[in-house]
């Protein structure tokens, strides 16, 4: 099988890649300490004025959300927002997906056909299609009906191949869909035809994370055994592969990754708190970041744009990593040093960077039931978003970064203003 090359840019000169001078430095923890289990709001909510424990049903939960969507019957695992319209697509434990209006909370379309939990939802770059991926191995795609509004969608096709879908990503410019599978394979389809373009076989464990590079030219994937593979989507042979046999890349499994806007660097998070910086031009590790507690999984990585921090390919940029230790660490990749640390009372599950002109703002979601908007320049808390009664499993930005939409383990999606 081969890729239709029209979906991938040809004849573009290679970006200037960073020159990291092959530096590999392990930076120690900055000395921040985790909160004790008894610290924080969760421990206090159950205490009355007389010091006696209150039954949970008597607790009044704070809720500063703008809107809510309670239609799921079970945990909500996935949330995605439309690139133009005020629509969200959620997927859950009830084997269902929904498209709903996050300004009104109105349910628009029920996305059916799965026989197991829907763990990923994703809108195409132009917003004309929506895909859902399930633990049943199915990838189902719907498309918008007509051009009058965004509220009518029809089922398009079901894509076969994966054993169990781990994640879905659309190409940043074209109608090409990428999926990582529990059976160690990576799938690439062309839409709306549904034709399989590539089956990328090189992993030996569940492919837990992956994406297209921002320039759309390459694919990066990583698995539960700690192997990272960089692909040309037109070729089934890896551009390069990093494995735990390289002691500098022994991460006990990879749980998250992100690529910088210049498509020159990847930051990779591990299952035991390790973070590695990889040069995509050289195919090798160029740095290690040691700010998270050992043994705690790094669940989220995102790049941010800060005034005064160089975004040139030679600088690397600024990245935020979030882990189950409750920390979100902000790193300057030009120096490989920690700028500041953001704190939650439980695991950080999602990190989102607002677009320009507010790209210095980052939203973090946590298992502590709260989301927080931070100024990444200083680490200052801008706003706290409360309303969930269970861990927040995923979040997405909408209205050009004006709102954040969150998916809760208690079965409810909430909408908050980011500022």
TrEMBL record:
The keyword Cytoplasm does not apply. SMART domains: WD40 (SM00320). SUPFAM superfamilies: WD40 repeat-like (SSF50978). Keywords: Repeat, WD repeat. It comes from the Eukaryota. Pfam families: WD40. InterPro entries: WD40/YVTN_repeat-like_dom_sf, WD40_PAC1, WD40_repeat_CS, WD40_repeat_dom_sf, WD40_rpt, WD_repeat_multifunction. Coiled coil: none annotated. WD repeats lie at residues 69-110, 111-142, 168-199, 200-241, 341-384. Gene3D superfamilies: YVTN repeat-like/Quinoprotein amine dehydrogenase. This is Uncharacterized protein.
């Amino acid at each position: 099988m081969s890729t239709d090359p029209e979906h991938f840019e040809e004849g573009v000169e290679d970006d200037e890649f960073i020159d990291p001078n092959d530096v590999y430095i392990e930076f120690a923890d900055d000395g921040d300490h985790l909160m004790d289990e008894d610290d924080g709001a969760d421990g206090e909510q159950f205490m009355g004025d007389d010091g006696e424990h209150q039954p949970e049903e008597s607790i009044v939960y704070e809720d500063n959300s703008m809107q809510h969507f309670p239609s799921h019957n079970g945990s909500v695992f996935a949330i995605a927002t439309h690139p133009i319209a005020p629509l969200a697509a959620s997927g859950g434990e009830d084997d269902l997906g929904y498209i709903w209006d996050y300004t009104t909370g109105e349910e628009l379309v029920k996305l059916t056909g799965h026989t197991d939990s829907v763990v990923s939802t994703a809108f195409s770059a132009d917003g004309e299609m929506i895909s859902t991926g399930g633990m049943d191995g199915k990838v189902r795609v719907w498309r918008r009906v007509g051009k009058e509004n965004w509220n009518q969608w029809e089922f398009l096709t079901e894509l076969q191949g994966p054993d169990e879908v781990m994640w879905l990503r659309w190409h940043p410019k074209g109608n090409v869909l990428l999926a990582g599978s529990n059976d160690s394979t990576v799938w690439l389809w062309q839409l709306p035809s549904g034709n399989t373009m590539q089956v990328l076989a090189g992993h030996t464990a569940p492919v837990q994370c992956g994406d297209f590079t921002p320039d759309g030219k390459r694919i990066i994937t990583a698995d539960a055994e700690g192997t990272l593979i960089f692909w040309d989507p037109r070729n089934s042979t890896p551009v390069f592969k990093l494995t735990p046999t390289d002691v500098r890349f022994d991460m006990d499994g990879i749980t998250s990754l992100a690529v910088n806007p210049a498509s020159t660097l990847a930051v990779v998070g591990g299952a035991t708190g390790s973070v590695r910086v990889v040069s995509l031009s050289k195919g090798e590790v160029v740095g290690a970041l040691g700010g998270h507690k050992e043994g705690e999984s790094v669940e989220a990585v995102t790049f941010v744009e800060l005034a005064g921090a160089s975004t040139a390919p030679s600088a690397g940029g600024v990245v935020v990593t979030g882990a189950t230790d409750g920390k979100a660490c902000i790193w300057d990749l030009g120096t490989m040093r920690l700028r500041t640390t953001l704190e939650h009372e439980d695991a950080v599950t999602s990190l989102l960077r607002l677009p320009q002109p507010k790209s210095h703002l980052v939203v973090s979601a946590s298992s502590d039931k709260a989301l927080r908007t931070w100024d990444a320049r200083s680490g200052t808390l801008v706003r706290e978003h409360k309303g969930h009664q269970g861990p927040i499993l995923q979040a997405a930005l909408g209205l050009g970064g004006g709102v954040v939409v969150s998916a809760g383990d208690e079965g409810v999606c909430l909408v908050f203003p980011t500022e």
